[in-house]
């Protein structure tokens, strides 16, 4: 799921024209050594925190269907996680960095969710909304100053980006649909005790097939007359 969110963010920024003019788009941590090796304008989208959104946790099962509408698998409801990214721009001049970071910010705030056309893999198959919150309150994750301290670099302008995405669980295959009829064997009497030799002597079983038959509430059994309690009578008939 994490790599699928990375890919969706990359496609979103590319569509917004952020990579025009030879700008590189990377997901590397902006450490001091990394920054010293930069020689082209770069935007870093660094994932620095990941936590489950417990408020969205649900209990239950979701079913998957094939083209004929039959259940083929069941999976538990997905877990939701919040991914925190630190978006920064790197050039030789602060003015150029601000211009590049502004272009990324304009692209990210254009929507509250990642467009469905950009989702791949399990995110695309689930068909759920992947939320996007840009430069919002930084709750439930390390502060930006703590992140810069851990990276060993000096603070610089950055955008705090949060993505809320579902993590699909492994499916459990459903039992195949029953398509064969009932096995039925008729005998004048039941051998006692029944043995393999007795079953062989009775002959092969026959399989009932219900071609053209429609099941009723009580199955495929033929309708039958049900006796009435003493003293009761059917409509239009004499007491029984």
Automatic annotation (TrEMBL):
Biased composition (Basic and acidic residues): 208-227
Domain of life: Bacteria
Keyword terms: Plasmid
Pfam families: Pvc16_N
Domain annotation Pvc16 N-terminal: ranges: 4-176
InterPro entries: Pvc16_N (IPR025351)
Sequence ranges of Low complexity compositional bias: 192-205
Region (Disordered): 192-240
The keyword RNA-binding is annotated on this UniProt entry: no
Skewed-composition ranges (Basic residues): 231-240
Protein name (Swiss-Prot/TrEMBL): Pvc16 N-terminal domain-containing protein
């Amino acid at each position: 799921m994490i790599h699928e969110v990375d890919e969706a963010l990359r496609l979103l920024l590319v569509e917004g024209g952020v990579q025009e003019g030879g700008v590189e788009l990377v997901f590397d941590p902006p450490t001091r050594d990394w920054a010293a090796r930069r020689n082209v304008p770069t935007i870093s989208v660094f994932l620095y925190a990941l936590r489950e959104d417990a408020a969205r946790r649900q209990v239950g099962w979701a079913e998957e269907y094939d083209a004929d509408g039959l259940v083929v698998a069941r999976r538990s409801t997905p877990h939701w996680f919040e991914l925190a990214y630190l978006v920064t721009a790197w050039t030789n001049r602060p003015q150029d960095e601000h211009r590049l970071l502004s272009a990324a910010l304009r692209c990210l705030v254009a929507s509250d969710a990642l467009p469905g056309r950009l989702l791949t893999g399990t995110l695309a198959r689930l068909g759920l909304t992947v939320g996007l919150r840009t430069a919002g309150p930084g709750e439930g994750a390390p502060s930006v100053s703590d992140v810069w301290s851990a990276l060993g670099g000096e603070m610089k302008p950055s955008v705090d980006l949060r993505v809320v995405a579902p993590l699909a669980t492994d499916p459990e295959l459903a039992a195949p649909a029953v398509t064969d009829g009932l096995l039925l064997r008729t005998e004048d009497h039941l051998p006692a005790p029944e043995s393999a030799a007795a079953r062989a002597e009775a002959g092969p079983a026959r399989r009932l097939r219900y071609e053209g038959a429609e099941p009723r509430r009580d199955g495929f059994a033929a309708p039958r007359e049900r006796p009435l309690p003493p003293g009761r009578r059917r409509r239009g008939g004499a007491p029984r």
